Amino acid sequence: MEKVRLDKYLWAIRIFKTRSLATAAIDEGKVKWNSTNIKPARIVALGDRYDIKTPARKWTIEVTGILNNRVAFEEAIKNYVDLSTDEDKLPPKQLSSGFYTGKRISKTGRPTKKQRRDLGGFLSEETEEED
């Protein structure tokens, strides 16, 4: 039976684009085995289940075959079973980049000369009526 490091296996089954990204994710604790952190050099065994968080989505996989080298996607998916829930298969929701600060709406621009005159007339009529 072949021995394959976890980082190399995750790269071979195309969860991560590069092996260094796989290693970094494992080091950061984004890959868990039985809810425990592991090291990139851990040997993958048949039947292992891993919880993986990538920027695109969350994965829960079970190893059904060992790959030593990167192969085509059609071949790669035959070596693991995706046990992720339907919720986890969706990409994470992005927060809007801007938020309401109480100031004027952005990109509306300054008032035109006509709008300023109208506003000035409106404000001066109010002050005259109050006197």
Q: Describe it for me?
A:
The model has no long low-confidence stretch (mean pLDDT about 85). The longest helix has 18 residues, at about 115-130. The chain has helices spanning about 5-10, 20-25, 75, 85-90, 115-130; strands spanning about 30-35, 35, 50-55, 60-65, 80. Helix 1 (about 5-10) crosses helix 2. By secondary structure, it is an alpha+beta fold. It is built from five helices and five strands. It has a domain at about 5-90: Roll (Structural Genomics Hypothetical 15.5 Kd Protein In mrcA-pckA Intergenic Region, Chain A).
List its traits.
alpha+beta, Structural Genomics Hypothetical 15.5 Kd Protein In mrcA-pckA Intergenic Region, Chain A, 5-stranded antiparallel beta sheet, 5 helices, 5 strands
CATH architecture of one domain: Roll
Number of helices: 5
CATH C-level label of one domain: Alpha Beta
Structural class: alpha+beta
Major β-sheet strand ordering: 2-1-3-4-5
How large a portion of the residues is in β-strands, by DSSP E?
Answer: 5-15%
